[in-house]
Please model this.
Amino acid sequence: MSKVGGMEGNHILLDNPPLKEAYRFLRKGLAGKMLVFFIADCEVSYRGRARSYLSRGERLIVIKPDGSLLIHRDKGYEPVNWQPPDTVISTRLTDNHLLVKSVRKSVNEVVEIHIFDLKVLGCYRLKDIGTFTMYGREEDMKKAIEMFPSLIEEGFKVLRTERKVRPGFIDVFGVDSQGRLTVVELKSGTSSMDAVLQLKKYVDSLKKELGVTEIRGILASPRITKRGLQLLKTLKLEYKPLSPAKCLKYLERKKGLKL
Amino acid sequence: MSKVGGMEGNHILLDNPPLKEAYRFLRKGLAGKMLVFFIADCEVSYRGRARSYLSRGERLIVIKPDGSLLIHRDKGYEPVNWQPPDTVISTRLTDNHLLVKSVRKSVNEVVEIHIFDLKVLGCYRLKDIGTFTMYGREEDMKKAIEMFPSLIEEGFKVLRTERKVRPGFIDVFGVDSQGRLTVVELKSGTSSMDAVLQLKKYVDSLKKELGVTEIRGILASPRITKRGLQLLKTLKLEYKPLSPAKCLKYLERKKGLKL
DNA sequence: GCCTAGGTCCCGTTT
DNA sequence: AAACGGGGCCTAGGC
Model:
């Protein structure tokens, strides 16, 4: 049984197609820069930064017009095999199976799908000019602190954000009410020892660069791990509880609108 | 036009179904713990650790039997919105649209999809008992070094792997030909300053724990960034070029088989 | 549950 | 092209 829908160029939908028919329309979909998906009984091999082999079974496979490839089993957020955008997809039909190959040349990586049977094949051109907006990331915390420096502490003033130091950028650089230079490292989620070491790195770099012996280091985030806090205290750094949610409330108040 | 395939319980495939029909079979697929996918003209909102809003457009949506949810636009490896496994999916049909809601209670996070139109709906039970194996990760480097310590240097001996220290685990702990204690940090990819700081942390912790003043620290990876190497030298640590690929060759030689 | 560390991480941005 | 840091990162493994 092979039922077919929408063959007039807009989209393609094949129910349980024979390999040969699937091959024909798969090529059509790929050539037409459509979003292609299919459920296939297949084997998958990957070679590149690492190697992997997935033995035979049914999976959902998605190929996007930009060359990204996703192979999903029936569990989990992550694809079992994949390629990021900018791969070249090629196909080949032999007697008993269909090969789909995705090659990324920038970093030599190859995914090969050996297909023995297809349950369904769909090709669509997504009409999507929608806009995507996200709130509550580190960037929003930064904006809020620029507008409301007291979110860090009373008397705090921002000198600048994204200040360059040797190894990267300081999230927020300012002075406290006593006039002491202060480095603020922001995290939108839980801070762990990594974040503490990062702050330490920035404080030390800046001391060296400016030839100053005293610079305060403040880590601002909604939560910090126990070990992170321990390390922080050992290194004479400070912690300020601050959540993206609280920052957003301040931003909304300023703009007078709900996000 | 709504063509229908495989309604006998095995799978469901609807071509351009009216919302009402889609709703009925969507519920059927979800209740039957099938893999569900559809292409929909929709809006998406997310609230949890952060918030986001995606305005109207066509996307490919996948709901897995384990409760994971993926919403893909026609570009990129990553879904624009998603939920990891263990969410509760609910649906509601109103006059002019279909709502699909995914709630994760462990960390209060909600994704809502407002659907205005469906291009296709599929529900399948994936038959997949295949095995997945991967080679060339840090773990394989560790195994290879245990069997062939000279991969680090002549005369090197492994005392143990995964040795616990204050803040975590040392990848490989051993002694060199001079009897000096040595900490090895492995990276399967390019090492940057982070990796160097990680190694430093381990070396320092171990010095403290053992009351020893001299411990060698070796970072082994296929590549290291310029700044990483700079920092490494400043901190009196060492670099050993070592790739997963080379480790795999040694492992294959040992096992006498091709991976 | 918390916490650490790895990942074929991906991805944007800047040098 | 290299490199650094963020991410709703996700996921596995200890404790």
Observations:
- Chain B touches chain A through 70 residues (CB under 8 Å).
